[in-house]
Amino acid sequence: MSTTAVLPRTVDTRVLPEVRAVRPVRHPAGRSGGSTYRLTRRGRLVVFALALLAVMAVGLLLAGGSAASPEAEPTTTVVVAPGETLWGIAGDLAAERGDADVRSMMERLEKLNGLESSMLMAGQRLEVPLD
């Protein structure tokens, strides 16, 4: 046997606020009704700073290769003979100039000729400083 319970119906006694009709908002002339982005003062400053950084980066990239190089020192060309070494050539040049430091002359020759090592080949042309 089954039983069914009948409960009394509950009534909502809350008072709902009065509903008013919504009127469309009119936008001032010259402004569209679509979404607009509004930047604060800080936002405008950030956008300006980013634009300035971008312009400076482009300027540095374009001007990077045009930096003035120091005046080239006067040089003469020497052809490497079979059996000659960079140390020997630097020693001869240092002795001619009365300089006892062969290492500084070697470094100068390497820098002047763009050498990555002291290895030379017979017939190779080297620029040597005149002074």
What is this structure's SSE topology?
Layout: H1 41-63, E1 75-79, H2 86-96, H3 102-113, E2 125-129
Antiparallel strand pairs: 1-2
Helix pairs in contact: 2-3
3D structure, described in words:
This protein is mainly α and 131 residues long. It has a domain at 75-129: Roll (Membrane-bound Lytic Murein Transglycosylase D, Chain A). The chain is built from three helices and two strands. It has a two-stranded antiparallel sheet. The radius of gyration is 43 Å and the shape is elongated. The N and C termini lie far apart (124 Å).
| C-alpha termini separation | 124 Å
Mean pLDDT: 83
Shape: elongated
The CATH class assignment of the domain at 75-129 is Alpha Beta
Number of contiguous helices: 3
Evaluate the radius of gyration. 43 Å
How large a portion of the residues is in β-strands, by DSSP E?
5-15%
Q: Unreliable stretches, pLDDT < 50, 5 or more residues?
A: none
CATH third-level topology of the domain at 75-129: Membrane-bound Lytic Murein Transglycosylase D, Chain A
